[in-house]
């Protein structure tokens, strides 16, 4: 297996219903699952580390969604308050083997595609800066190193 | 001050365990701090823990086994000076090599640590795959552990659980070995991780 670089892409997005109340849990689970599948389609050698998202609401309420594989459903904790029409989502896309720009493009394309289908609006509020080193690699992370020992 | 290091690959269940342990420790009147490291600049776990009213310190945008190892030491010293916790739950990013985290700890110059316990979590649902593509990281995680926890046992098959247990035993036979779904931690499991409480 080739050495795997890791360039985490983090961002916060604002999601807003344009019309009727939305089933946010279903939408966001589909978002993370689709994103994991898109990553693997873009590079079959990539490894989905963790794609996770969090939305916070008043009174200690929250929705946390997590995907660790393109073939397994998202896991969720918490819930969205009923009648919620807008939420702010923090999203971490931690995928080995894809460049930062690729992950950025896939994340935004997937969000826009789903927003259109679910009749909602999505806007990126801010993104984390690209890691200074570009790659996060440790000498003992990838299998290639082991084979060279 | 006791230090509990919770390690494991991305998505293995570290944050869930930290939240459960923090609540158990607080229930035993332990002054508890969580120090969470996330590789991304916009953290998720730290926000969730704050929402759940835990005392959280965060190290974001890097990894405490390498780029942020100096920040780990200074944050621990700051914690000792300003908060004086009985227990620090330290959660490195899931990409961190625990050996690198442990190499940084001797530089800590605060009050002497009463104990350092290292717990590794293995996700049996994808250990087979990860062990193939990231053998050195997974092996190092188990090697550094005093106690290995096989998580997600409510979702994993008997074969997946057996593989995870066997892997842990092969790499570090002397480590304690438990399995759990992480939802309800048994008193025995809590006692194994926080022995000074009992």
List keywords for this structure.
heterodimer, A: 149 residues, Alpha-Beta Plaits, six-stranded antiparallel sheet, 3 helices, 6 strands, 32% strand, disordered C terminus, B: 198 residues, alpha/beta, Rossmann fold, seven-stranded parallel sheet
Report on this model:
Chain A has a single domain (9-140), classed as Alpha-Beta Plaits. In chain A, 30% of the residues lie in helices and 32% in strands. Chain A has helices at residues 24-42, 100-118, 143-148; strands at residues 9-17, 47-56, 62-67, 75-78, 86-96, 120-127. In chain A, strands 4-3-2-5-1-6 form a 6-stranded antiparallel β-sheet, covered by helices on one side. Chain A starts with 8 loop residues before the first strand and ends with a helix. Residues 144-149 of chain A have low confidence and may be disordered. Chain B has 198 residues and is of the alpha/beta class. Chain B has helices at residues 14-27, 45-51, 69-82, 98-104, 127-133, 135-143, 158-171, 187-193; strands spanning 2-8, 32-38, 56-60, 87-91, 115-122, 147-150, 176-179. In chain B, helix 5 (127-133) crosses helix 6 (135-143). At the A-B interface, strand 1, strand 2, strand 3, strand 5 and helix 3 of A face helix 2, helix 5 and helix 6 of B.
SSE topology sketch:
The complex is a heterodimer of chains A (149) and B (198).
Chain A: E1 9-17, H1 24-42, E2 47-56, E3 62-67, E4 75-78, E5 86-96, H2 100-118, E6 120-127, H3 143-148
Antiparallel strand pairs in A: 1-5, 1-6, 2-3, 2-5, 3-4
Helix pairs in contact in A: 1-2
Chain B: E1 2-8, H1 14-27, E2 32-38, H2 45-51, E3 56-60, H3 69-82, E4 87-91, H4 98-104, E5 115-122, H5 127-133, H6 135-143, E6 147-150, H7 158-171, E7 176-179, H8 187-193
